[in-house]
Amino acid sequence: MKKFQLAAMAATALVAFGGAALAGPTLDAVKARGQLICGVNTGTAGFSAANSQGVWTGIDVDLCKAVAAALWGDVSKVKYVPLTAQQRFTALQSGEIDILSRNTTATLTRDTSLGINFTGVNFYDGQGFMVPNKLGVKSAKELNGATVCVQPGTTTELNLADYFRGQKMEFKPVVIEKLEEVNNAYFSGRCDVYTTDASGLASIRATVAPKPEDHTILPELISKEPLGPSVRHGDDQFTDLVRWAHFVMLEAEEYGITAANLDQMAKSDNPGIQRLLNVAGKDGKTAALGSMLGVPDTWAYNIIKLVGNYGESFERNVGMGSPLKLPRGSNALWSKGGLQYAWPVR
Amino acid sequence: MAISAGPAKPPARKFSWNDPAVRGLFYQALAIGAVVFIIWYLASNTVANLNARSIATGFAFMNRESGFAIGENLISYGPADTYLRALVVGLLNTLRVAVAGILLATILGTLIGIARLSGNFFIAKAASIYVEVLRNLPLLLQLFFWYAVISETMPGPREALKPLPGFFLSNRGFKFPLPVDNVAWDFAAIGLLLAIIAVFVVRAWAKKRRDATGQQFPTGWTALALIVGLPLLGWIIGGAPTAMDVPAMRGFNFVGGGTLSPEFAALLIGLVTYTAAFIAEIVRSGILAVSKGQTEAAEAVGLSKAQTLRMIVLPQALRVIVPPMTSQYLNITKNSSLAVAIGYPDLVSIANTTINQTGQAIEGVAIIMGVYLTISLSIAAFMNWYNKRIALVER
Q1: Could you tell me the residue range of the domain that residue B108 belongs to?
Q2: pTM for the full model?
């Protein structure tokens, strides 16, 4: 009998050395598949939400579209995977999605121990509080003893605890996973206060509240929430592509290039615009920046043509052209007093 | 050396594939090898992939500060405490709803099960409708229903209903007065403990005396007197304090007193009403399993109705009832993890948050599985012990 056990063990040992497979670099996999799989929110108007026809729109969706535009000049080659706050990192880690563009806050712990990389910030946000007007609360400092509705698994939950600890105030959290159920709990009066990113509050107030004018977002922002897309750690080439797709949209806004005036701007003799749109300069050569990223050289042209510049995307999804009516604030270009700043595309 | 003339040893078997014992061993070795290999392969693959993606592993996070708050806690807890303590808070919340659920579902289920056998047409029909409706609707749906009923129909805390002075009913939950902490209550608790021990002693003594002399002893009344009397005595010795911590509306919410939160209430009501439907059927089948001849025979020897039920029908019915009851108790415990959908901070809810804050999903899921397995096996072990105890002793 010993003999058989030994033989069996030897056999298993041999097979076993095949071991642990690793996913190949994302960029090659995405190109081979001909489709970008993008993790988005289950439904936050302005960031990522599907309409009644199942068409996804939002500022986070536009980022995925920009990557698809850079790769193939076709924004329909994106598959959207709606994820809850709790599912999102596992989905990215396990390779179920290529890119997580789901109003996710970049933090040190996430950047390191989760094995993911944030490529940039497409929306600067801060955590706020929303209260019904009938409570007569004017400031977050008056919230001692309040019951607070919050979604689990977010930095929101931690900031909330930190803020109340810092102010030496008490609170009772009501933690519910599904966004619809948290919304219900707040609007049915189970909680006094609803907390999430200020943009999210504006979105919920505009789209879910029975009477939006009955609810106030308090002036205090209790945290920094740099929201941005992330990819798996160690996929440097893909990280670069996502980062620069966002920068192209910013750069286009800075040069005043829009989807509408793109072809006209291509005739410009501004060397920066020529480089961005890959138009031959005085020396008759093109910058060929796309090739360096591993995508066609028309990448930037396609992004602007199909998605527009950052300002257009912002106004269409969350700004004055949308129900959210958020001001540009910190998300204005650096040249206009905001924080959005693209590294030179050259 | 002389060889003793014992029974002759059979000749040593030659190795042969035709020998069924050899084949049996071979297949067993193969099966064990396959299982070990699969476990090893999964584990090593996981570790290799986690390392390759630089995802942290290990249970070191348990001693880090959690940083998040929990709505309901039986032991003191704040965001400055560790993940370990947060998980313990979650475990206690799970046990709290499971224990209360098991007790209430057993009582309600037994009542409905007996009602189904009632001679009264309306009671029997009402009980069958209850069973058929409740056990055929998904539990998650029922939980959402109860939670919506509670949070939508209850008024806000400032307009809270006052069914009794000091009691408040609002969408923040049910608030009730609690006695102010006092050493007298500890004495009362000790009194209760002593009373329970005394009841067992008295019962054993009474049984012995009955077996020896045939004389009856009013065990029931003595037990009642002990259970009420001893804690009362402890309370009086402690100075008979009557101060109560009455909840009062201050700012946003009630301060003081005890709370039954809407989430706990919805989960408990949902679990109890759902599981009671199954328990009712088990109880009904158990009672029907005892043949009518047993009851008639008991009546013939002059036992009263209560004695017949207690000494003849119940012991025999329990043998049929207990084994399937075990799986219902396990179901309550496991179904309590649906709490996450309506915001009750049970173990799964807290572990999910922990997984999300630390990113260590494998460890988190392992903790959840380990805890549920332990609880379930403990319940099963207890019920098996009880089942053996009440099993028919054959002489």
Answers
A1: 83-152+262-390
A2: 0.75
